[in-house]
TrEMBL record:
Ca(2+) 1 binds at residues 70, 73, 75, 77, 79, 88. GO terms for biological process: hydrogen peroxide catabolic process; response to oxidative stress. Residues 1-23 form the signal peptide. Residues 28-290 form the Plant heme peroxidase family profile domain. Ca(2+) 2 binds at residues 157, 210, 213, 218. Its cofactor is Ca(2+); heme b. It is found in: Secreted. Pfam families: peroxidase (PF00141). This is Peroxidase. It comes from Morella rubra (Chinese bayberry). The active site is at 69 (proton acceptor). Belongs to the peroxidase family. Ascorbate peroxidase subfamily. Belongs to the peroxidase family. Classical plant (class III) peroxidase subfamily. Its EC number is 1.11.1.7.
Length: 291
């Protein structure tokens, strides 16, 4: 699998790129890895993400989810982009992943200007970073423990979900209608979800993760949890569990604090299982290993 050589952090809202030097795995981190080999790498990825997001506002959520699935399975090695049998993409659990075309587009541009230089793993990490930056561009300020879990769950402030992803909160009665069986979900919100996702709804039907500010990366997700409007059962659990409830309340009342924690937890996430030095390869195409 590929190496990831850029590690992303943030001070409030401005994300800063770091990299792992082209050296043995124990090497220290250094700044601006592509400054010499491909000075415009970040700009090209950022422009690709912004262009795609302007056409499809669900793009940022897709890119964030794509990165999470990549990093949490085999480490941040872009293996989720590989196509074919017995790949991560072929796993039914990943059927709803999207954003692949954005990564392919960015890779295509980079291969023209900096052939064989920028890894797909780095492109994916940069694209996910820029996806968040795209969502919060109206702000100008600078900004995987249990705490990281609460923080990274905040990614549900944007994006969409298929009805099947939260169907376990309902059951079908004898007449074929859905009824709410999860008392942790707000009744009015549940009614809205059942209207959007009735029994027998098409597999293509989706709802927004955040019913309030679905296209803005903000702290509304945590306010939704306080109002018992977490879309997934795992979301609601963060508010009902005494170990995590205080952090939910803190983030709901402090957006800057959420952004600061997001930067720190995002750095941890994109450091999982990184490949450095002679490990991995820089693929010519993100969807296949080099021959």
């Amino acid at each position: 699998m590929e190496k990831i050589r850029v590690i992303l952090s943030a001070e409030l809202l401005v994300f800063v790129m770091f990299s792992i030097a082209e050296a043995p795995p124990s090497a220290n981190l250094s700044l601006n890895f592509y400054d010499v080999s491909c000075p415009s790498a970040e700009l090209m990825v950022r422009n690709t993400v912004r262009s795609a997001s302007s056409v499809d506002p669900t793009t940022p959520g897709k890119l964030l989810r794509l990165l999470f699935h990549d990093c949490l399975v085999e480490g941040c090695d872009a293996s989720v982009l590989l196509q074919g049998n017995r790949t991560e993409q072929s796993d039914p659990a990943n059927n709803s992943l999207g954003g692949f075309s954005v990564i392919d587009s960015a890779k295509g541009v980079l291969e023209v200007f900096c052939p064989g230089t920028v890894s797909c793993a780095d492109i994916l990490a940069l694209a996910a970073r820029d996806a968040v930056e795209t969502m919060i561009k109206i702000f100008s300020s600078k900004g995987l423990s249990l705490e990281d879990l609460v923080t990274l769950s905040g990614a549900h402030t944007i994006g969409i979900a298929h009805c099947s992803a939260f169907s376990d909160r309902f059951e079908k009665d004898s007449k074929g209608n859905l009824t709410l069986i999860d008392s942790s979900l707000d009744g009015t919100y549940a009614e809205e979800l059942m209207k959007r996702c009735p029994a027998g709804a098409s597999l293509s039907v989706t709802v927004h993760n955040d019913p309030e500010t679905s296209f803005v990366f903000d702290n509304q997700y945590y306010q939704n949890l306080q109002a018992h409007k977490g879309l997934f059962q795992s979301d609601s659990a963060l508010f009902s569990d005494n170990r995590t409830r205080k952090q939910v309340d803190d983030f709901a009342n402090d957006q800057v604090g959420f952004f600061e924690s997001w930067g720190q937890s995002f750095l941890k996430l994109t450091s999982i299982g990184v490949k450095t030095g002679d490990e991995g390869e820089i693929r010519r195409s993100c969807s296949a290993t080099n021959m």
